[in-house]
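[step 3/7] fold_predict: job queued, chain A
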Amino acid sequence: MAKREDSRKSGIYTITSPSGKQYVGSAVNIDIRCNRHKRLLRTGEHYNRVLQNAANKYGVESLVFSRLLICRIEDLVIFEQRSIDILKPSYNICLMAGSMLGYKHTNESRKRMSEDVRRSDNAKRPENRAKIIEALRRPEVRIKVSGDNSPMKRPEARN
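[step 4/7] structure written:
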């Protein structure tokens, strides 16, 4: 996507599907941001359901990731908003740059976000991190989570 000298550039990018519909975004580092989009789309975990549906329908490799313009970090929101206003992208859920205004999370996503925050907050506390590390070092725990006993290999863990 990028030449080496542009690899850390901030700016505005688009994601275009074979249908011609677009998503417009801004990023401090376009390459890292586009790679994150691709990873989330490939794993089916993208937060933008409309863009995820397009990736499921056409395939991630069929989506075209392009730089629209390079700009200073402090100008990202201005140029993103102008790009949204001009291009009128179909895949953008929020049509206001840098804002989630107008987006309503589903009850399921709100519950998931709440659980994620609780999990990350608990893991960040030094006393909990030490407990987690200590528990993982115990032989009986290591046996339970490795090989065929791995939770990721059990069908009930995949649901």
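[step 5/7] annotate
Residues 134 and 156 are 26 Å apart (CA to CA).
The chain has a mean pLDDT of 80.
exit 0
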